[in-house]
Amino acid sequence: MAAGILETFDLKDRVALVTGASSGIGQAIAVALAEAGAEIVAVGRSEPMATAEMVRAAGRRLHAIRADLAARPDPNDLVENVVDHFGRLDILVNNAGIIRRAAALELSEDDWDEVIDVNLRSVFFLSQAAARAMLRLSGRGKIINICSMLSFQGGIRVASYTASKSGLLGLTRNLANEWAAQGINVNAIAPGYFETNNTAPLRADAERSADILKRIPAGRWGKPTDLAGAAVFLASRASDYVHGAVLPVDGGWLAR
Asked: Going by C-beta distance under 8 Å and a sequence separation of 6 or more, which residues neighbour residue 175?
């Protein structure tokens, strides 16, 4: 019985596309999926050299696709690149995201558009292209969106980011409603306050960092590797009856 349970987390012979996999959360998720058996496709603006080394160390292959999601690349081309290289696509992790910090009275239209394009628009159209390929090739698939604490809360000085991540949670539920009966699971992970490039300004502000730590029951900032288990679960057969869920990995932040 125990072996059967463990087998449901096995990602052998699966292919996972992870956006923004060069560092931070995306890198940790890509490596975790590789360690569970998946081949990895990394989509991003830079060459994921460190990620590729870690994936190879796990005995898996990594195929890199250079693309700037803010420039609106054709999502169908990205997905077909994956299919041409590996012959299938089973898992999509929409991790790539950007943030622009400014008071709402000062936020520019360009910054608003760029954040919405990367964090929300690209997620929908890449998910659409991936779902079409999944249904055509195997009739099933897993899509994991990386939400945020600001999918639940308003935040300050991050209006476009909050709007995009709140919208992403709603989109996760909408796509789950439409695609669950067709064999595609759409779910989300909501990281709390993690040690990433996006949170560097917060961690550099001693007062703000102390205030954040006081609110986290675990008493520390999250590390990208803290997301590994949640990602493997939502990518695997273990989550086959999980649809439209958002899994906070936040050290207890939302419980306060």
From this structure: 127, 131, 143, 184, 186
